[in-house]
């Protein structure tokens, strides 16, 4: 029986790779380098050894290897981890890649390459090898050095930027020219695709996996993971993007779940197999005659790549505030050209736009950088000393001053940082969702409805469905009551114009997206419809029903997003963390000339605007005789205590008001009312311990698990009667391990939620007893 050529080829490839990589492991060289050498040995360019016959099949297998590599890169990428990396990783990676890309492009032009080939050269040189760097750190035992964490964080960002680069290069290759508008459109569509799928995946995937994991064996999990990987790769390809982008997104979706390690474990063997074939195929494309004829360019490319990476990576780390010595050590570590560069090279070959001679050139340059990297890391201290001698003293002094931390920190307002971060993240996330809804409704829903219904009913139904879904995600864009926003508003008049500008931008953004379905469905009278739609969105978007529905979506999304963090925290501290340790309590006396004297708490809206609770008011008895008595308990020193005051409770001069909130909210409250804090802020736990002897008006905090038989289960906080009937307030709700602090009044109370309640000793005791009773029944 004749043996298929693919079987023969695989036997030759894998056995050669096994022998060569064992040798390279023995001489402490990177395994990637071993695979490349093994690939060269079985290539048509090395006739003294076995040749691979079925190159088409090997090419297909190598493409599968690229898909798996990108899937695993995504699998080790986590949105929360990226946020925790801070500015150093983002700035250093961006500066380094941009600088090296430009210098690589200039180098290509000097060597006579056209624009596209020069861009591919710059892109390949700009990305460093994660595998080689990580292996070098382990072998040199420097993982605990300060700069290694910065380098690994920078590599995570580089992988993400590499995905963007592949989209840019694919777009430019299609047109063979640098078309600015077309490129921006392609990047915008990719960003929309990326954000939309990440948001949808975070909302759905962890929930689905948690429900089916008890049924899953390792085999089934591997099949599911690989199926998701190829499905997303196929979907991305059908939408006009690369398969690699889809595979990366699939891995990113898995990375946010608590099952990421299991997925990595069950698929790592398959990834290693196909990844090895990919690197073997890289070696098989190395033509020694091309290297021999281009060695005068290969050596300069490798050396200049190392130098440029050192310069720009160091500059990026210094710009982000790192010391020069740390930045230089990080820059030297980023020298090797690696796996992502080979993927970009394969992309250029597959698109037919990159000269084939450039492939072995970049591989040869990569081999040189891989060999030099361990020595560069080992001698990083000497390199730092050398640079210190070369750099002028004036420049060293300037760098020292910039990175010393003695800059005017007062110029960096943390409230502005919080507000701007919230503004851009909300516009990006919710804007993307709204854009996807508007485009999907206009391009798919309306045409489908129009085919089966008359024109007017089809238009009305599509109109209602599209905007009904959009309203849910417009609500968070209309929320302007964060503590930082409020603090900036009240602290300085100069802050108000930019804050108002941000509000106007949000409304303009909403109007622009809301116009898309109006224009697509109603060709005439567009502006009349648009005005009506915006008015309806603003009114309905702030309704209790929409608010409750959105809060359910948001809580589930945030719970899934933080799933791994929640699991880690529960392993370390257990699920019994009490909110009274996180909240603080302060008191103040209402001045006689305060503008809020005589106003009730509902009108003041301190809870909504300043994110605090008024939990107790102590009032002089003579004030009660003059103004009429609110319900309360007898307190000390001739005062009557009003616990958990309702919205109709008025404030009068001389009242002692107790408020609860987190530290920032209380700070904002003081700024808004123009108070100077004279006493230290106590935690709620400390206050209750000292307040306990006053049994008539003492506060207590308990955690109550919601039973399905509880009268407030299935109701919103506003309609639960917990404050009105039971005279308690909800400090927080824990839903499936995720805690929502100071929950919105429209949040739904569901079975198995854990509520943290604050109230008088007597009232919280009644709530605890009622919870126990409903559980038994």
UniProtKB/TrEMBL annotation:
GO terms for cellular component: membrane. InterPro entries: Cation/H_exchanger_TM, Na+/solute_symporter_sf, RCK_C, RCK_C_sf. PROSITE patterns: RCK_C. This is RCK C-terminal domain-containing protein. GO terms for molecular function: antiporter activity; monoatomic cation transmembrane transporter activity. Gene3D superfamilies: 1.20.1530.20, Regulator of K+ conductance, C-terminal domain. Residues 573-675, 689-775 form the RCK C-terminal domain. It is found in: Membrane. Coiled coil: none annotated. Belongs to the monovalent cation:proton antiporter 2 (CPA2) transporter (TC 2.A.37) family. GO terms for biological process: potassium ion transport; proton transmembrane transport.
């Amino acid at each position: 029986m004749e043996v298929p050529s693919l079987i023969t080829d695989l036997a030759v490839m894998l056995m050669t790779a096994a022998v060569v990589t064992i040798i390279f492991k023995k001489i402490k060289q990177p395994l990637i380098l071993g695979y490349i050498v093994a690939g060269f040995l079985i290539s048509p360019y090395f006739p003294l050894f076995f040749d691979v016959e079925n190159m088409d099949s090997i090419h297909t297998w190598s493409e599968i290897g690229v898909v798996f590599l990108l899937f695993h890169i995504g699998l080790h990428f986590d949105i929360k981890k990226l946020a925790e990396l801070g500015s150093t990783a983002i700035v250093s990676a961006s500066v380094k890649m941009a600088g090296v890309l430009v210098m690589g492009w200039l180098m290509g032009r000097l060597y006579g390459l056209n624009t596209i080939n020069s861009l591919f050269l710059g892109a390949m040189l700009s990305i460093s090898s994660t595998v080689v760097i990580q292996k070098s750190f382990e072998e040199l035992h420097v993982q605990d050095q300060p700069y290694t964490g910065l380098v690994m964080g920078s590599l995570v960002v580089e992988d993400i930027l590499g995905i963007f680069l592949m989209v840019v290069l694919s777009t430019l290759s299609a047109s063979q020219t640098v078309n600015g508008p077309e490129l921006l459109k392609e990047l915008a569509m990719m960003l929309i695709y990326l954000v939309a799928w990440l948001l949808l995946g975070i909302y759905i995937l962890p929930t689905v996996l948690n429900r089916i994991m008890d049924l899953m064996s390792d085999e089934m999990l591997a099949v599911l993971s690989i199926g998701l990987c190829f499905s997303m790769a196929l979907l991305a390809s059908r939408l006009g993007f690369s398969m690699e982008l889809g595979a990366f997104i699939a891995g990113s979706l898995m990375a946010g779940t608590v099952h990421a390690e299991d997925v990595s474990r069950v698929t790592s063997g398959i990834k290693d197999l196909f990844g090895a074939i990919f690197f073997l195929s890289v070696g098989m494309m190395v033509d020694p005659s091309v290297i021999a004829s281009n060695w005068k360019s290969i050596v300069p490319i490798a050396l200049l790549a190392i130098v440029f990476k050192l310069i720009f990576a160091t500059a990026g780390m210094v710009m982000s505030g790192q010391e020069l010595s740390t930045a230089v050590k990080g820059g030297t570590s980023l020298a090797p050209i690696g796996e992502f560069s080979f993927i970009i090279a394969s992309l250029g070959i597959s698109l037919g736009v990159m000269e084939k001679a450039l492939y072995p050139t970049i591989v040869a340059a990569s081999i040189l950088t891989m060999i030099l990297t361990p020595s560069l890391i080992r001698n990083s201290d000497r390199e730092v000393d050398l640079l210190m001698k070369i750099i002028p003293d004036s420049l060293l002094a300037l760098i020292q001053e910039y990175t010393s931390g003695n800059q005017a920190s007062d110029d960096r307002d943390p409230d502005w940082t919080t507000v701007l971060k919230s503004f851009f993240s909300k516009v990006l996330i919710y804007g993307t969702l709204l854009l996807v809804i508007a485009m999907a409704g206009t391009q798919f829903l309306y045409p489908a409805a129009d085919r089966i219904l008359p024109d007017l009913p089809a238009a009305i139904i599509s109109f209602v469905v599209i905007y009904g879904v959009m309203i849910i995600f417009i609500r968070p864009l209309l929320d302007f009551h964060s503590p930082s926003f409020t603090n900036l508003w009240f602290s300085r008049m100069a802050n108000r114009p930019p804050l108002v500008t941000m509000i106007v931008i949000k409304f303009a953004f909403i109007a622009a997206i809301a116009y898309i379905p109006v224009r697509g469905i109603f060709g005439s009278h567009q502006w009349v419809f648009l005005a009506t739609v915006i008015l309806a969105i603003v009114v309905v978007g702030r309704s209790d029903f929409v608010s409750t529905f959105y809060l359910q979506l948001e809580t589930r999304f945030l719970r899934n997003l933080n799933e791994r963090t929640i699991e880690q925290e529960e392993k370390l501290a257990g699920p019994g963390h009490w909110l009274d340790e996180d909240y603080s309590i302060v008191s103040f006396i209402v001045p006689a000339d305060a503008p809020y004297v005589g106003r009730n708490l509902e009108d003041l809206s301190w809870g909504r605007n300043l994110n605090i609770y008024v939990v107790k008011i102590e009032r002089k008895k003579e004030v009660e005789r003059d103004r009429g008595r609110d319900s309360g308990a007898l307190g000390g020193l001739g005062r009557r205590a009003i616990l958990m005051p309702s919205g109709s409770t008025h404030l009068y001069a001389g009242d002692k008001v107790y408020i609860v909130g987190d530290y920032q909210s209380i700070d904002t409250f003081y700024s808004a009312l123009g108070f100077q804090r004279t006493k230290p802020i106590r935690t709620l736990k400390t206050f209750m311990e000292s307040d306990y002897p006053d049994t008539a008006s003492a506060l207590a905090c308990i955690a109550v698990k919601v039973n399905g038989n509880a009268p407030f289960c299935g109701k919103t906080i506003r309609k639960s009667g917990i404050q009105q009937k039971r005279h308690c307030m909800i400090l927080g709700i824990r839903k499936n391990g995720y805690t929502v602090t100071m929950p919105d009044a429209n949040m739904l109370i569901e079975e198995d939620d854990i509520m943290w309640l604050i109230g008088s000793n007597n009232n919280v005791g009644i709530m605890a007893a009622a919870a126990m009773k409903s559980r038994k029944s």
